[in-house]
Amino acid sequence: RISQILKLLTLAPSIQERLLSLPPRMAGDEPITERDLRKVVDEPRWDRQRELFARLLALKAFVQPEPPPDR
Question: Which residue from 16, 5, 11 is spatially nearest to 48, judged by alpha carbons?
Fold first, then answer.
């Protein structure tokens, strides 16, 4: 269990900051759990971590997903 928590230190600094700035969870809110973050933590590249984290936030309804850029 400790190793799972320590792995969170490998998250991109911007993700760590965002997690720390999330508002307190209200009854009925879907929490972001350590289990949710495992796929993000397993990605070594910070740019990919940010993409995975953005998808997670969208899935948990913290933010609306950004539309894909026009081509």
Answer: 11
Give the span between the Cα atoms of 28 and 33, in whole angstroms: 15
Predicted local distance difference test score (pLDDT) of residue 64: 47
Q: What single string gives the DSSP state of each residue in 15-50?
A: HHHHHHHSPPPPTT-----HHHHHHHHH---HHHHH
Question: Cα separation of 3 and 1, whole Å?
Answer: 5
Is the full-model pTM beyond 0.70? yes
| Structural contact between residues 55 and 36, judged by C-beta atoms closer than 8 angstroms | no
What are 45-59's pLDDT values in tens digits?
999 999 999 999 888
